[in-house]
Amino acid sequence: MDATITHSLSKTNRAAEAKRTWERLTNGQDIKAIRDKPAAAIETARKKKFHTYNPVLYVIKKQVLDQRRAKEPQLTPAAVTTFGELGEGCVMVQEWLAMRYKAHLNSQPERPDGVKVATLVGNFRADFRLALIMTVVRRAAAMQLGSGLPSGSIRGSYGLASLSAQGSA
Fold it and tell me: Do both 129 and 104 map to the same domain?
């Protein structure tokens, strides 16, 4: 999995987002198909990730054919917009984790507090989405905190370290 955060209204995404919004507003017949599409920024971010990793995937496929690798890994670009829209990859990872959690809970004896497996898995899904959104918010805040500073002073986790230090003060 490779995760990325994108801003829908950046200069590079603004025109595509305007076009997608116009399609959503004007297409009355097939409105469900257009509303189900992710933000244009998410599609662009996914395409960039696939473009980046395609050469590596071809090497891995050759390794599988040559039996140097037992199994071909899956690539899942997980893109999130700064407005909180989760891309297809995020949902796939969330559902995979939720199903693994559900399988674990089903293998355990009944809970003494009587909470059902479906409730626990539902809570996990909600908490996972919230954690993703909070990560996006923290990164956006770190970017704003570091705006105008030389790039060397905001590399790595410096922006987040100073952000969390300010939050605890």
Answer: yes
What 3-state DSSP class applies to 86? strand
Put residue 58 in one of left, alpha, beta given phi > 0 → left and psi -120 to 50 → alpha. Answer: alpha
Instruction: Give the domain extent around 137.
Output: 87-169
Task: Please check whether residues 5 and 68 belong to one and the same domain.
Answer: yes
Name the domain boundary from 85, 107, 142. 85
How many independent structural domains does the chain possess? 2
95 and 168 share a domain? yes
What gap in Å lies between CA 62 and CA 39, rounded to an integer? 34
Q: What is the DSSP letter of 16?
A: H
How does pLDDT run along the chain (169 residues), one tens digit per residue? 777 888 787 888 888 888 887 877 776 656 565 566 778 888 888 888 888 888 888 898 899 999 998 888 887 888 888 888 888 888 888 999 999 999 999 999 988 998 999 999 999 999 999 998 888 888 878 777 777 766 666 555 544 445 445 554 4
Regarding whether 103 and 69 lie in a shared domain, the answer is: no
- Give dist(CA 69, CA 63) in Å, integer: 5
**Distance (Å, whole) CA 42 – CA 110:** 41
